[in-house]
Specification:
The protein has eight helices and 15 strands. The chain is an alpha/beta fold and about 375 residues long. Helix 3 packs across helix 8, helix 4 crosses helix 5 and helix 6 packs across helix 7.
Length: about 375
């Protein structure tokens, strides 16, 4: 969140895993992984998907789950701050079109969230960067985003009115992401333990973040060189896609976004592939969220109300701590634009027969049973979204 009467920087007010569990009583609990088939995750990127989530006896559209999660987060912050937010900004993949954005807008309105602006993730990343570093008009920034389950590469440009515009964007499809790197580390450990060895995915994820010269997972020591050798082909594939997405544009800097960018091998590979600075925050999984708070403030006050940063330089090393991104003015949604989904190619498969809804989900169904933390806590979800 950003305070309108305080510092221009954003602060992390709440961190919670994006998990919704349906209970037998028809209510949702937040932030805890429950029984298989009753817990939803990964729904935020599937808004507008015609196939809903199946939770117990219920079917739940992805945009509805996303709106419920956002409503719960807003309620938790309001309880802490004692007042409603003046404006809310929500991120979405840069590749989303009017239909997906419209579905999410409609779901948010249905749960009472009206003053909201949807912002593409790379623009939010750029807004976060621009708070601490001066970004001149017509300057370009490249955004390398690598989270638990998604990879994307984007190029944005600073407009004359101190907002940002998207020049190019590529969503990774067959690329390894943070969860895949956890699996690769687990495979190394299992190779030492034998076929009967058990490795915790949570322990692998924590070890991957904290990699120094070596880490110990399930009693097995894995050196950094061993891990780098295992993940090098995957990292090279990611960097190659990023370089192709940037194309002939010469960006002023590359911004690392997403928790998987904590791996030093990612920053090292990018630094060797591009002729510009590669910048990351200490917690890159929070960069987009912080940029969204800045974007919400800019919607209310306008970019001209925010002074230029005094410091004209940013971090020169991927492991240092200083990054910022700007968000431009995003027009209010036009309901006429969201009347129908884009045409889909014909298919020859039988339609999925969905069971009827048996539980009505409203605002009161959410129970604050999730694991919460302050800005000093560690996020269990690398995406931090």
């Amino acid at each position: 969140m950003c305070r309108l009467d305080g510092t221009w920087d954003a602060e992390i007010a709440l961190v919670v895993p994006s998990l919704l569990q349906l209970t037998d009583a028809g209510t949702f609990t937040v932030g805890e992984l429950g029984a298989p088939g009753w817990t939803a995750f990964g729904f935020a990127r599937r808004a507008g998907d015609a196939v809903p989530f199946s939770l117990g006896p219920e079917t739940c559209p992805a945009e509805e789950l996303t709106a419920l999660m956002i409503m719960w987060v807003i309620g938790e912050v309001v309880a802490r701050e004692g007042e409603q937010p003046r404006h809310v900004a929500v991120s979405h993949p840069a590749g989303w079109g009017p239909y997906r954005r419209g579905q999410l807008h409609g779901a948010l309105r249905a749960v009472g969230v009206h003053d909201v602006t949807l912002v593409p993730e790379p623009l939010a990343a750029a807004e976060n960067h621009a708070v601490r570093a001066r970004v001149l008009p017509d300057a370009s920034l490249a955004v390398f985003s690598l989270g638990s389950h998604a990879f994307s590469a984007s190029v944005v440009r600073r407009a004359q009115n101190r907002t940002f515009e998207l020049l190019n964007h590529v969503e990774g499809v067959d690329h390894h992401t943070g969860a895949d790197f956890d699996d690769l580390l687990g495979a190394l450990v299992r190779g030492r333990l034998g076929k009967d060895g058990r490795v915790s995915a949570v322990e692998c994820e924590a070890a991957k973040r904290a990699f120094g010269q070596s880490v110990v997972v399930s009693g097995v020591e894995i050196t950094r060189d061993e891990f780098v050798e295992e993940v090098r082909p995957s990292v090279d594939h990611l960097v190659g896609t990023f370089v192709r997405a940037v194309g002939p544009v010469q960006p002023d800097a590359v911004l690392l976004v997403g928790g998987a960018c904590r791996m030093a091998v990612v920053g090292d590979a990018l630094s060797a592939a591009v002729d510009c600075r590669v910048l990351a925050e200490a917690a890159p999984e929070h960069s987009v969220a912080k940029g969204l708070a800045v974007a919400a403030r800019l919607v209310l006050l306008g970019p001209e109300a925010e002074p230029e940063p005094l410091d004209t330089s940013v971090l020169l090393h991927t492991r240092e701590q200083s990054l910022r991104f700007p968000v431009g003015e995003v027009p209010a949604p036009d309901d006429d634009e969201f009347t129908a989904p884009p045409p889909r190619p014909p298919v020859d498969v039988s339609p999925l027969e969905l069971p009827p809804r048996r539980v009505k989900r409203v605002a009161s169904v959410l129970k604050p049973a999730g694991r919460r933390s302050s800005s000093r806590s560690r996020d269990d979800d690398e995406d931090g979204r």
